[in-house]
Amino acid sequence: MLNRRQPTIGVILRVCVPLALMLGAAAVARSADDSISAKLKKDTDVGVAFNDIPQGFFDVIVSLVHPDDWSIVTNAESSKVVSKSGDTIWNRTSADEDTHVWEGCGVTGNCWPGVLFAGNLTKHTSGGGGGTPPGFNASVADIDIDVDSLGLHSDEPTSHHWPPDGSLGEDEEEGGDGTGGLCLPASLVTGQFPTNLPSGTDYKTLKLTLNPKWVGTPSYDGNVGTLTFSTTGSGFALYELTGSDSGTLVTTGIRVPPNGFSGKQYGILTNGDFTSSGGITATFTWDSNLKGGEDTATDYVRIAPTAYVVVLHVDSDNTTAADEYPRYELGDLGRDEDAVKDVSPGKYIPINDAYYAGEAVPGFADGIDKFGNGHAGACGPFHRILLELKNFTDLSQCKIKFTYSGSDPDNLEQFSGDEEGAYDYVPDTGAIRIWKKDGSECRSPASASEGGDYIQPDVQYTAADLGLTLGQTKTLYMEAVDINSSDTTIEIIVEVDLDGSGTDIRTDRVKVTPILCSAENIGNGN
């Protein structure tokens, strides 16, 4: 987590770039001027933990606090900062027996973000502490949790597990200030959380990176510390992934090898008890032989229930043929399309007034089971409008209503025409129609609430009326019929009443513009 929020322990940066040092309270304290104070002991390691350091150069003021009867040797070798490989990486700009200042570089530069402070102590009193001065070292750990806090993958059909991208933007929204974080739907699994991750579960991904820089000797098992997870709230659980579709419930500490972890993946599941926000804290604790105190490195992410979300999708940027939408490689259902869906002109819809295949019936009257014109193949493909209900767990009580300038096909009028028996047709007032079926299919002009295919505006429908099932994105079809509405932008609004009471309604809207177009283009779906 890069630190744009208030860090656990702060430092002074000469170029005002945020940096956090996260240290345990036992050996390290935060002073009034926001410098870092590390209490040293002779021949003892002091645990220190950095979060990610931003790129660039800056001064880091670290106050190394000596014991009462000792002071820090201030010669050229009295203290140093070294990389994971042991090379000196920061330039010390000043040093006395109390304070040492280094010019540091950031994580995306040439330097590893963790550093090791090392130096020597000497006795205050004359003649004391003969021989080689006792030394001190500081074991350093950098820990970072990454989740899809920006929701970049929540709309991507190929990324059901929402892997994070590890960006600064994600880190800034991980919820240390009590907002944001990873928003999850409830009931990704039913009942109690099993010990093993159920196969095929739609878990969401948490990645953890832990870089320890240690001094001393690893423990008997070859590791340097322990990673633990703690949670606040209820209704969610963490699994250590052992494969893309397998994992084990995290209940105990995880031993950390000397090289730490790089992008170690965990899966998060929720159940029906997930009704309010909580959080996950990852804590790395050095083994006792590698630290001088109870120093730890921590990172935190907020976990919050996702609200019910209603989304309408149309080809607002007009990149895709009617019968091919959506095409993800053209950006369909993406952020650019979503950004202009309620901005004029929105989706262009050709007015269906052409005569197809030499028929004597205009498109807006053909293919409709009225006046004997109900047959398949009468019209070309209609442009699609997709209805998506995200995070819903029950549709049985929902009431769904569309509001738009609708032309009721059941009010279509037929008049006697020329001497050859042709008829003239006049559509109902209104600009467009929304159907359950495409233009190539025979369509009933009755309302969907009465078993027909027309979605009448300002009528409440059940999910069953629309053929909508849980977890499905429902494809509906738009037809423009009024030549007088050409180049006039029409707004389509959907309202979903969650329980039919009228007290909890979710909405979304898109804009479309009917246009006059040649029969050839309409037939090609352009």
User: Low-confidence parts lasting 5 or more residues at pLDDT below 50?
Assistant: 1-37, 45-59, 106-114, 125-132, 154-158, 519-526
**How large is the count of helical segments?**
4
Average pLDDT works out at 76
Shape: elongated
Topology, number of strands: 33
- Overall SS class: mainly beta
Characterize the main sheet.
7 strands, mixed
**Beta-strand percentage?**
35-45%
Q: Roughly how many Å apart are the termini? A: 47 Å
Number of domains: 3
User: What integer value in Å does the Rg equal?
Assistant: 33 Å
Q: How do the strands of the widest beta sheet line up side by side?
A: 1-5-13-15-20-17-18
Helix content: under 10%
Describe the structure.
The chain starts with 20 loop residues before the first strand and ends with a helix. 4% of the residues lie in helices and 36% in strands. It has helices at 168-172, 335-339, 463-466, 519-523, and strands at residues 21-22, 28-30, 36-39, 44-45, 48-50, 57-65, 70-72, 79-82, 91-95, 99-105, 116-123, 135-137, 140-146, 182-184, 204-213, 225-232, 236-243, 246-249, 254-256, 261-270, 278-286, 296-305, 309-313, 347-350, 383-390, 399-403, 413-416, 423-426, 432-435, 460-461, 473-480, 490-497, 505-515. By secondary structure, the chain is mainly β. Strand 32 and strand 33 (505-515) form a beta hairpin. The chain is elongated. The chain has three domains: 21-127, no CATH class; 143-305, Immunoglobulin-like (Sandwich), CATH 2.60.40; 309-523, no CATH class.
